[in-house]
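Trying the structure run again after the queue cleared.
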Amino acid sequence: MALEHAVVEILDSDAIDPGRGLSRFIPVEFNPAEYTLTKGAQIAEITIPGLDSPVLQFIRGQTQTLKLELFFDTTTAGMGDGAVDVRTLTNSFYQLVKIQPKAHAPPRIRITWGEGLSLKAIVESVDQKFTLFTPGGVPLRATLSLSMREYKTLEEQLAELNLQSSDHTRTHTVVEGDTFASIACEVYGDPRAWRRIADANKEIDDPTAPPAGWQLVVPSIEDGTVAR
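Done. Tokens:
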């Protein structure tokens, strides 16, 4: 069976610029020895007096991340006058975290390795470690540590979730002028249900002026009724 090399594909056509080392496909010289996929969930602790431990409430999923190391070597060209700077190979990956002139953001990419790995992502960080040099200081070997976050549009996420009911606890980002009563009116259709929100957010001292930007836990409506 032929060896399949991992490859990085740039998905934003505006970011492709061969002059800056960004072609549509960026080949990986040596496949990674391992990689790590991480996925988490944000969980809130809702404290209720008298219970032995707080009630755990799911808030939202967290972005899946991929971490891997890539090795590059140019010693086959020699270590003398004809030595090749290994950065000619690593620069393409370094460019993936830089703001692109047209998009004003790092490009979206897809990393693929045969049938085992395919992830659409944005590169979050690139660490370059150089380990072998010519007498003149030209780096010939490098290990790149890449960290990337999975990228999905809102439409893609909603399609994957395929939620069967909208009656679940949610979050609400407080904006200037919000009160628990106004949020209860928006969510439940009844401003008198503000205490349900207050009970789930006991760390907020003033329900008439919650801090702007705060992520409130908004409990679901149980059995089609609102507790008052």
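The helical segments are 87-94, 154-161, 180-188, 194-200. Worth checking whether this holds up in the mutant runs.
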